[in-house]
Write a structure and sequence with these properties.
about 220 residues, alpha/beta, Helicase, Ruva Protein, domain 3, Rossmann fold, 4-stranded parallel sheet, 7 helices, Phosphatase-like_N
Amino acid sequence: MSDSPLSLAAHIRRELSIDQQLALTTAATRLQSEFDGTFGVATIERFLHSSYDQFAGRATIANFLPLLAERFARQRLNALARVEGKVSDGKPTVLFLCTHNAGRSQMALGYFTFLAGENGVAWSGGSEPGNEINPSAVQAMSEVGIDITGEFPKPWTDEIVRAADVVVTMGCGDACPIFPGKRYENWDLPDPAGQGIDAVRPIRDDIEERIRRLLADLGITPTR
């Protein structure tokens, strides 16, 4: 594969619109600029393509696909950089997993990011990612001043799990990935799927308490 930033265009599926092709090519160029000196063009394009594939079969708005693919590829490349020792900032890294990555794991990610600030890294994923974040979870988090509308349901990948110091599972059962040597915690929480705001608030509050205990265990002082 060529190392030219434009080489992506030759590998894009024919069924994509011109706008989508241009958006993916632009995404590849941005990622190549961000990860210059860390990963080669071939690796970046491979991650962008496979990230696109993760969403292509279930995205409700096709025009958002290139953006979702770029954001997920960026997360995966950051994870791979940690796995390969190309990032050594010493920040604890936590992965929150549930079934649909639409409620519990997204609220946990929101709380961790809000409370840890720049002192930790967190990601989330699902065994069967949904199409959107649970509106009741969004509302519940908004009530405590945390905006999770910028997140989106996504799967996990090997490099993301391998990069995590702690993997927190919430109901994904046997589908949750098991990697030897990883620290695992299982949080027994009700599934907020299909629940109204009154049912989700106690789940949210339980998650906050668990996140604060996890931060203390990791030696991270909450910023709030």
